[in-house]
Amino acid sequence: QVQLVESGGGLMQPGGSLRLSCAASGSIVSVAAMGWYRQAPGKERELVAMITRAADTNSATNIAESVKGRFTISRDNAKNTWYLQMNNLKPEDTAVYYCAANAAGNVFIAPHKYESWGQGTQVTVSS
Q: How far apart are CA 90 and CA 70, in angstroms?
């Protein structure tokens, strides 16, 4: 079993930046892909960015079109931690952000196939 703990959310003005972190513990060997989803009030959970744990030629990412060019996902395998750098934040980025991990190593699978989820961190973008 994998435990995920997010940090780094908060309130930011439009155009600002935040960095989210997700620290994993437990059965780390079962984490083959990791990343972020978000859920705004009244909306379904949606993909933000995912990345494989592998840092070699098998590495892959999946980034939502709505955040491409503004958000960057990265990982530090030595620390069992991954990050979401969010730049040029917009009000529509306001949501609860969840880190997630799956053992399949697939960055394109549906959210219900993820085995591990964090409890979420609120990101609010408002002036």
A: 10
Contact call for residues 86 and 17 (beta carbons, < 8 A): yes
Report pLDDT digits (tens) over 78-122: 999 999 999 999 999 999 999 999 998 999 989 999 999 999 999
Instruction: Provide the 10 A C-beta neighbour count for residue 58.
Output: 10
Q: Which residues contact 44 (CB under 8 A, 6 or more apart)?
A: none
Tokens 């306001």: give the residue: 94
Q: Tell me the C-alpha distance between 50 and 72, whole Å.
A: 10
77: phi then psi, degrees, rounded to nearest 5: -65, -30
126: helix, strand or coil? coil
H/E stretch holding 72: strand 71-76
Beta carbons of 96 and 126 less than 8 angstroms apart: no
Q: What pLDDT, on a 0 to 100 scale, did the predictor assign at position 57?
A: 75
CA-closest candidate to residue 118, choices 19, 34, 57: 34
Q: What is the pLDDT of residue 12?
A: 97
